[in-house]
Amino acid sequence: MRYKYWSLDDCHHASGVVVVIDVVRAFTCAAVVLAGGAQRDYLVSGVEEALALRQRLPNAVVMGEIEGIKVPEFDFGNSPSQLSRINFQGKTVIQRTTSGTQGVVRSRQAEKIFAASFCVAGATARAIRALKPAEVNFVSTGIRDDGRGDEDVALADYLAALLSDKQPDPRPYLERVKNSLVAGLFTNPDDPDFPSADIPLTMDLDRYDFAMPVTWEEGIAFIDIHSRQG
Ligand SMILES: O=C(O)[C@H](CS(=O)(=O)O)OP(=O)(O)O
């Protein structure tokens, strides 16, 4: 299997099997709300788009952020520790984030997309392996010019090792999340936007036994419980 690495800047060229990665925090949040009972998690690019979709869909709530800060009109921010305390049974979630959902929306050449974080890593690797692809494309959505994004590249490296049957020790990969630049924002347990409890959740390897394949309907991307694999 061959592996290619992409960022938000060039992922519009990625084709075939594409794994869109956002460890801190969008796709940790996506897994949390699906595990918490959400029927569907729509992944959108714009704030207005998210709010308009909420108007159209029954039992819909919006979660996400701009640069990590909850949008006042949204129901929830982008904190997996806060979202893990909510019952999403019967709800449809609409998610808009600065990095993760943009990666999905921009990967328009992909034939198959998986949204991924460490808490669904094992199931994601199994779902990819079942497709027997010759090549896997990893989009690390957190990469920025200032050095941010190593937490996403760490997951790409870990998945590549898993897919190569190397039986990797996960600890050095998870250490990279802890030591990432973005993790340094999460020092205060009471910070409403960057609570310190979020980082341990983003490092909770295989917390959930499902992958998050993305489906498109009428031009809108979503993950739903019927698409779960792994
Ligand atoms: O809220 C987050 O963790 C980030 C904010 S940003 O990308 O660092 O501005 O968003 P996400 O899309 O979850 O990476």
Supply database-style keywords.
single chain, 230 residues, alpha/beta, putative 2-phosphosulfolactate phosphatase, ten-stranded mixed sheet, 10 strands, globular, binds ligand L3UKIRZJ
Overall description:
The longest helix is centred in the C-terminal third of the chain and has 14 residues, at 150-163. Helix 5 packs across helix 6 and helix 6 packs antiparallel against helix 7 (171-178). 30% of the residues lie in helices and 24% in strands. It is α/β, with parallel strands linked by helices and 230 residues long. It contains 8 helices and 10 strands. The chain is globular. It has helices at residues 26-35, 47-56, 80-83, 100-106, 121-131, 150-163, 171-178, 198-202, and strands spanning 2-7, 16-21, 40-44, 60-66, 69-70, 92-96, 110-116, 135-140, 212-217, 220-224. It has a single domain (2-224), classed as ComB-like (putative 2-phosphosulfolactate phosphatase, Alpha-Beta Complex). The chain binds the ligand O=C(O)[C@H](CS(=O)(=O)O)OP(=O)(O)O. Ligand L3UKIRZJ binds at residues 22, 24-26, 65, 67-68, 78, 97-100, 142, 182. Its EC number is 3.1.3.71. This is Probable 2-phosphosulfolactate phosphatase. Its cofactor is Mg(2+). Belongs to the ComB family.
Element pattern in H and E: EEHEHEEHEHEHEHHHEE
Residues in helices, as a percent range: 25-40%
Assign the CATH class: Alpha Beta
> Could you say which overall geometry the principal axes of the C-alpha atoms support?
globular
* Rg measurement, Å: 16 Å
Strand order of the largest sheet: 1-8-2-7-9-10-3-6-4-5
What structural category characterises the helix and strand content?
alpha/beta
Characterize the largest beta sheet: strand count, sense, and whether it forms a barrel.
10 strands, mixed
Mean pLDDT: 96
The CATH architecture can be named as Alpha-Beta Complex
Approximate strand percentage: 15-25%
- Total domain units: 1
Count of DSSP helices? Answer: 8
Give the names of the bound compounds: the ligand O=C(O)[C@H](CS(=O)(=O)O)OP(=O)(O)O
